[in-house]
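Aim 2, interim progress. The first record below pairs a target sequence with its C-alpha cells.
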Amino acid sequence: MDQFLDIVAAGCMIVGSLMSLIAGIGLLTFPDLLTRMHAATKPQVLGFLLLFIGLAIHLRSWQVVPVLALAWGVQLLTAPVSAHMIGRSGYRTKHVKRETLYSDELRTVVENASRQNKD
C-alpha cells in the first residue's frame, strides 16, 4: 500500500510540475498580453493543486491538509483576480491587440468613462 501511495504522490507531483513548466513556457512564448495572462493562471492553479495533493499523500499526515488547502485557496483566489486586473490595465494602456479580440465588451465601458472624465 505504501508503494502505491508513493507512486500516486510522485505522479501528482510530476504532473503538477509539468503544468507549472507549461505555464512558464507559455509566458515566454505566447505573443500577446491576453494569451500570456491565460497561460500564467490556468495551468498554474491546477499544477499547484496537483503538487499539494502529491505532497499531502507523500507526508501522510492530516495536519498538513488544512495548510495546503489554505495555500491552494489563496492561490485560487489571487491568480484570477490579478490576471483580471492585469488584463484591464493592459487594455486601458493599449497593450492589447484589439484586432485579435473576438468580442470587445470593455470598449463601451472605457469610452463612457473617458467621456465622463472629459466633462
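The second target in this work package is listed in the same format:
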Amino acid sequence: MQHPVPRNRPRTRATALVVCLAAAGAVALSGCGSNTRTVGAAPPPRAKDAFDQRAAQIVRDWPKVAPAPGRQDALLPLAGADHPKSQDVRELTVTVGHSACDAGYGTRVLESKELVVVSGWGRKKNPEGMCTEQLATDKAKVRLDGPLAGRKVVDAATGKQLLKG
C-alpha cells in the first residue's frame, strides 16, 4: 500500500530551500580542506598607542626626527642614559623624567636593527586631588631582547640620540 504524496507545493519548495541552506551552512562551517587548524592562546592584537606609533616613526625616519609635540603620558622624555660597560649588555639604565603627581612610571622600548627607541611613561594619580606638578627624575632599567651591539639609543619623546651604540 502506497501513501498518497501531499500536493502542497509551496511547503515542499520551502522545505527543500531550508534543507539546501542548512547543507550549504554546514559546508561553510566545516572549513576548506582536510587540515586540522589549531587556535592559539595568544592575546588579541592591541591597538597601537602613542609610543608604538612614535617609535615606528623614528625607526622609519631616522635620523631626521623632530620632537613629539606636547606632553603625553605614554611619551615622557628621558633625562639621560648611563653608558653601558660593554656592547654585549642586554640592560640599560635611563633616567625618567615624570611628574611628582604620577601614581606610577616606567619605560617602554622598541628595538630595531640599528636603533633602541626608549620612552618614559607615567600614570596620573586621582585628577581630583591637589598636585604641584613638580618634575621628578628616577633611574629605571630597560631590558633588551638582544645585546646593544652598536645600536643607537634614542629618546622617543625628543627624537634625540642618548647613547651611541
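Confidence is low (pLDDT under 50) at residues 5-40. This observation will shape the mutagenesis plan for the next reporting period.
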